[in-house]
Amino acid sequence: MLKTILGVAAVFLLIAFTAYLSFYYAPIEKSMGVIQKIFYLHLPSAFSSFVALGICFYANLRYVFTRQPKWDWLGVSAAEVGLAFISVVLITGPIWAHPVWGIWWTWDARLTLTFVLWLLYISYLLLRSMLEDPDKRALFSALFGIFAFLDVPLVYFSIRWWRTQHPQPVILGGAGSGLDPRMRISYLLVWLAFTGLMVLLLRARYKLEALRAGVDELRREAEIQ
Amino acid sequence: MKNLDSVLAAYLAGWAIFFAYYISVSRRMNTLRDEVERLKNLLNRGK
Predict the structure, then answer these.
(1) Touching check for A38 and chain B: CB below 8 Å?
(2) Between chains, do A84 and B18 touch, taking CB under 8 Å as contact?
(3) What would the pLDDT profile of B1-25 be if each residue is shown by its tens digit?
């Protein structure tokens, strides 16, 4: 319990500190102005969603090979948390785009593939809700989750492979790309804070799934009696 | 400052999503805890 409280306190202190860095330490971008501050929410959310979906992919693979329920619990937990982070990306992107591009949305490769990613993980959760048998639910959703994850590298590389309205990468981009050092350190710390937040949400969601399995077990016992 | 309202809207919307998700997990957890209690009582009465 104490470890959990310390973990939550550490993540929230880091979030508060990185909020200060984002708004006061990192300089205002010259061409876009203050609207570029959305970067410190939009990009870390995207990268944290990739981490969560990577965990989901790993758990799905482990479930297929071991059939241990704990991997199914981790898979669904990571998918749901990843979906929350992608939702933040899809909401903050258009709010940023409108004053800068003059449009809320365009069907370019990056935006479309991100929207498809969101739909894929919505489908993953819908698929689970439609299957009654726990073993079938776990196996089919694990197989679907492995397929769904294929979209993550496509989202990541889309701005490198195709010409898009979405800006070219500023993190791990090619020659001529990059960030002001104060922006870079602020971004990296925000991402660390968001990854911490992702882990906290994932732990809470995993506990929920484990409790659900316990309830199913108790229900079966009650039915036998 | 130009577009400050958009920055505020983005941060409010983003944090609202995280908060709503956490509330949703907590509510589902409470419902399941109540169900565990109910089932345990049911099983104890049956013994």
Answers:
(1) yes
(2) yes
(3) 778 999 999 999 999 999 999 999 9
Number of domains in chain A: 1
Helix and strand numbers, DSSP H then E, in chain B:
1, 0
Whether residue A91 and residue B2 make contact (CB cut-off 8 A), yes or no, is no
CA distance A161 to chain B (A): 28
pTM reported for the whole predicted model: 0.92
Q: Is residue A4 part of a domain?
A: no
Give me the residue from B3, B17, B35 closest to A87, CB to CB: B17
Considering the domain boundaries, does residue A85 fall inside one? yes
Domain boundaries, position A200:
38-224
Substitution target in A202, A208, A209, A216 with the highest count of B β-carbons within 10 Å is: A208
Chain A residue at shortest CA distance from B10: A92
Q: Please state, as a whole number, how many other Cβ atoms lie within 10 Å of the Cβ of residue B29.
A: 16
B40 and A221 in contact by Cβ < 8 A?
no
Cβ A221 vs Cβ B43: under 8 Å? yes
Mean pLDDT across chain A: 92
Residue A214 lies in a domain: yes
Count A/B contacts: CB-CB distance under 8 Å. 87
pLDDT tens-digit readout, A127-172: 999 998 999 999 999 999 999 999 999 999 998 888 877 777 776 6
